[in-house]
UniProtKB/TrEMBL annotation, chain B:
The lineage of its organism: Bacteria, Pseudomonadati, Pseudomonadota, Gammaproteobacteria, Chromatiales. Pfam families: MnhB. It is found in: Cell membrane. This is Sodium:proton antiporter. Keywords: Cell membrane, Membrane, Transmembrane, Transmembrane helix.
From TrEMBL, chain C:
GO terms for cellular component: plasma membrane. It is a multi-pass membrane protein. This is Na+/H+ antiporter subunit C. It comes from Thiorhodococcus minor. Keywords: Cell membrane, Membrane, Transmembrane, Transmembrane helix.
From TrEMBL, chain D:
The keyword Transferase does not apply. Keywords: Cell membrane, Membrane, Transmembrane, Transmembrane helix. Its main location: membrane. It is found in: Cell membrane. The keyword Cell membrane applies. It holds the Pfam family MbhD. It comes from Thiorhodococcus minor. It is a multi-pass membrane protein. This is DUF4040 domain-containing protein.
Amino acid sequence: MTDALDWLAPLVSLDRLAWLDPLAWLVVLPLGWATLAFVLGSGRGAWAALAGVSLQLWLAVELAGTILADGATPPVGASEMAAHHAVGGWGAPLGIDLAADGLSAAMLILTQMVALPLAVYARAYFKAGDPAGAWFWPLMGFLIAGLNALFVSADLFNLYVTLELVGLASVGIVAAGGGAQQLAAALRYLFVSLVGSGAYLLGVALIYGAYGTVSIATLTPLIAAEAPRLVWLAAGLMLVGLLLKTALFPFHFWLPPAHGSAPAPVSALLSALVVKASFYLILRLWIGPLEPLLPAAAAWLAALLGALAIFWGSYRAIRAVKLKRLIAYSTVAQLGYLFLIFPLLAQPAALQAGVMQVFAHGLAKAGMFAAAGVMIRATGQDTVAGLAGAVDRLPVTLFAFGLAGMTLMGLPPSSGFLAKWQIIEAALAQGYWIIAVVALAGGLLAALYVFRVLRQAFLVSGADVAERGPVPAVPRTLEWSAFVLAAASVLLGLRGVELMRLLGAGA
Amino acid sequence: MKALAKTFVVVWLALVFVAAAIGAMLELGPAALDLRAPVTDHLTDTGVSHPVTAVLLNYRGYDTLLEIAVLLLALLGILAAGGAAGSAAPKAAHPMLQASARLAAPLMILVAVYLLWAGAFLPGGAFQAGAVLAAAAVLLHLVGLTRGWDSPRLRLRLGLAGGFALFLAVAAALLTQGALLGFPPAWAGELIMLIEAGLTVSLGLILAGFFLFLSRDLR
Amino acid sequence: MTSGLLFALVGVALFALGVAGVVLIAQLPRRILAFNLMGSGAFLVLVGLAQRGDLPDPVPHAMVLTGIVVAVAATALALALVRRLHALTGRLQLPEDDGD
Amino acid sequence: MTLGLAFDLLLACALLWSAWRTLSTPRLDRAIILFIAFGLLMTIAWIRLSAPDIALAEAAIGAGLTGALLLDAYGALRQRKRRRKAS
């Protein structure tokens, strides 16, 4: 009997499935279903997307499992990575290598984890014939493919191509079926994105000129051994280009219009994942090949800009009239936290804190934008004021918004609490109390803009609601997928240990 | 006033950057690595004899795969940005022009086929061939012989995505055999030619689409 | 000085000119031109600097081919958005964003 | 100074000049023509850098296709403006 079932074994265990290398399939799969969705035609392909993202989630978890199981894993940031795939069989520096460590695996899991509920949400959000949803599925497929490709690439030039893939896909879904305001936001975003990747490309060109290779693993020891002045310039160009794409203060000007004017599922994808991709790349370069070049002052400059982002983004969110603008400015503020960790990177806990914040904000912000989409549908307007009395009609959605808000404020037991607590702990351990103060103040400011929304919905009477006529019904799927994302952001706080282990693997 | 200050700052930064970069470039020593030798050493295993084509489709074929995705994506973005439906009825050009376009189009297709074939051992290849095909399609449109494209029907969608799908399918099939795009030396030449032929048609359609889908808003 | 190094220097200047153009010019089609100049500059640096010893290197050649195609894709998308914006508003400049 | 280097210097100046004029000339149609000229100069530069593949691609895609796209867009914009004025 057991013999008869032996053929099943390779389907279950990845170790015996050499051909099922998750690194490469995580890129091939989304490219495949994106193409299929395009061929199927306008408005089609939701099922292909759902099936594809589910499979990808499984692959990403498997990948994380193999990295965790490998006891001798080198620490995150080492040029030797745990999982590895030589495209074309050539190997770097002649060919392109794919590689993943705990950091890449974490980003891959987050991407599929956010994309799956959002795909469910988007299927209900874009009604048949909606011009904004006409080509949503292939665009989303290429976006996810670009993100996955970025997280597994170990080649600087290949990373440029993935950056362009992510950038153009994002601009495409922001512009989709939009009016003048949306198009203007998309164009502004496009130019920023192109200048950012252009600066990155020039940096790569200078590095190739100096060393004759663009493979990260080959470059790391070369840069550590000798760095001519040109390489400093290259590092500066690459980092500034990526900061522009990450929308770190003062480069944030393009983000609120782009994230605030797109349809809700698009805003969620952009805020939760796309800005994190360029942040991931900054982190990857910072702890990897560029590490020997960066003085402590650079880390403090990043942290200073991060702190300014927290204050300015929160201030604008507190004053915002429109609901989605409020959430978009909150993204500007929350991105600031990610840069507070740079002066602390001497401790591995700082990296864990940063990635925890990426997860916390990714899940919470996706949930928040999804919830906002429901509220805008139900109230017919994108304003905070219009939410008066919404609690009677949208209890689930407001609960979701509240949970996501909890994560952004950093209240226990959410993952946001875990992230902020770790930042504060790492800061105090190294004697940098100022960073701890900034992190605490940011939480209080977040409370102000989150409660502004909740107060309007719960406490202000919705007496004028009746005058607006019948309330449009909102599909239940929308409410619940928003809830799942927000709840995940809180529950992750209880299961944070696995994530920490993934990032601490071998350290 | 603010605009003037911005101009001043940007120009000043640009000048400082150029001066620094030029200074740093002039003092640069030789590179640590030289990929010219390995590229030539393995050339017989790549299936093509032209080094640039070997890098483009074999050594770094993965870049090219993603790059075709970028092209398809730009077209998708153009379609998604929308515009009024209904294809433009082009003005018919002078009969003489039309006749010469009719004559030129097949010639251009021949040139494209030559460029594609020559790419294996001479400068040329799918991109250059695709651009020539696109030019032929645009020419026919400009003299009023073909209509602009409205929304892509199934056949056109298959043509637009087919080259990329074929490339991806070959990459995935090779992945099940070991490595993504790991061409076996014995078959590399044939597989690369197959991919390039598919890409030429799709690239021609995509590049032509950049014009013909846009002619929608030209009424 | 070799041709490679000379064109790499020109590339840096073109890149700076292009970036300054994208940042400073308001007219959208002109910004697209500036972006293309910026890209050409980066390509010249990539190829020129790699062959400052005057021996051609096929790896950056292939990279630049990739880059040119990506640039034309971005240009086509940008032009499509500009044309659409012009159809809707009759303007060739981005409207001021009030920030709210 | 060799003849080749002198030619390169001339070409470099022409590249920079045409790029500058592309951005500074007041009329958009002129700018597009100058940009196409810039693309053709780039083609020559690629030949000088012994990169015939890129030269072909630059002529077909960089100067040719991009230039045609720009001219096409310019024509469409002008046509719409004229119609807007007429109505």
